[in-house]
Amino acid sequence: MIVTAASVAALQIGFKKSFQDAFNATRPTSDYTKVATVVNSTSKSETYGWLGKFPKMREWVGDRIVKDMEAFGYTIVNKDFEATIGVDRNDIEDDNLGVYAPLFAEMGLSAAQQPDDLIFSLLKAGAATTCYDGQYFFDTDHPSFDEAGAATTVANIDSSGGTNPYWYLLDTSRPLKPLIFQERKKAQFVSKTDPNTSDTVFTSKKFLYGADARSNAGFGFWQMAYASNVALNGDNLDAAIEAMRSLRDINGRPLGIKPTMLVVGPKLRSAANKAVKVMLGDGGASNANYNAVEVLDTDWVA
User: Nearest Cα to 47, choosing from 67, 18, 76?
Assistant: First the structure.
């Protein structure tokens, strides 16, 4: 094949199609939207000053009580991400391009999975990463309130299981989910291929094709999540559910948290299914947690 601007442009159409087809096929099957609210970003970063306020209805006696946004200053800064493939000019001249279509498809798959990687990596790091209240997202002493509205502290983690793998209980039923995927620029296919002006073509015989995106992940309300590495069974699941449902606001009223999803990695898949998907337990006793929550079995928290 003679390398010309027109022939390179024609190749780009095919490469981009391989990328886009894989991206479009993968993104709808991603898990991140099940646990994270997608926020469209319009700047370098976004500050979520309203985190820390659960707006709740109250009896209207006297004037309205205005709930100002607490200035926690929780900011998510967008990051740049890229992937690049160099196509050798000799391969174009020799019409040896069959190997590249799978590579561009793999790039499209990787770009589609990037939000999953960001979100679930952050969930796994929750015991060592701060959220809006300055505490680790999963911590033993989050500021909270008791039934009388008095200040107290509560835990949303049980790490007494030693080196056992963690499982995560989440309330994903609300408009704001426990995590936030902040998207500034969706992944797009880009190239640097002009045979007359490209430095890489001149110096390295490489036509460059790639994908780039801008985004990041952050935490929402810690109250909507609980992490544990104790044995995943009915009793321990009950304890985690009770801990989440007992959370209260400054007036001592229940926050109404009700976990809906159990997130596990492959090592806990069987235990999770036994805990909530089997109607009868050992000895034929009824499983009180049957279908209590949805199980999300994902490699991203392995």
Answer: 76
* pLDDT score at 70: 40
pLDDT at 13 over 80: yes
pLDDT single digits (tens) 20-74: 999 999 988 899 999 999 999 999 999 887 776 665 555 555 544 334 334 346 8
CA-closest candidate to residue 271, choices 242, 229, 215, 243: 229
Residue 186 CB contacts under 8 Å (≥ 6 apart), including other chains = 213
Cross-strand pairs, 130: 136
Identify the CA nearest to 237 among candidates 281, 283, 275, 267: 275
Helix, strand and coil percent figures for the chain, each rounded to 5: 35, 25, 40
Domain map (residue ranges) of the chain: 5-60+70-301
Instruction: Tell me how far apart the alpha carbons of residues 194 and 207 are, in angstroms, rounded to a whole number.
Output: 8
Q: What is the DSSP letter of 280?
A: B
Compute the distance between CA of residue 232 and CA of residue 270 in angstroms, rounded to an integer: 10
Which letter does DSSP use for residue 136 in this model?
A: B
Give the whole-angstrom CA distance, residue 259 versus residue 293.
7
Tokens of 250: 């400054």
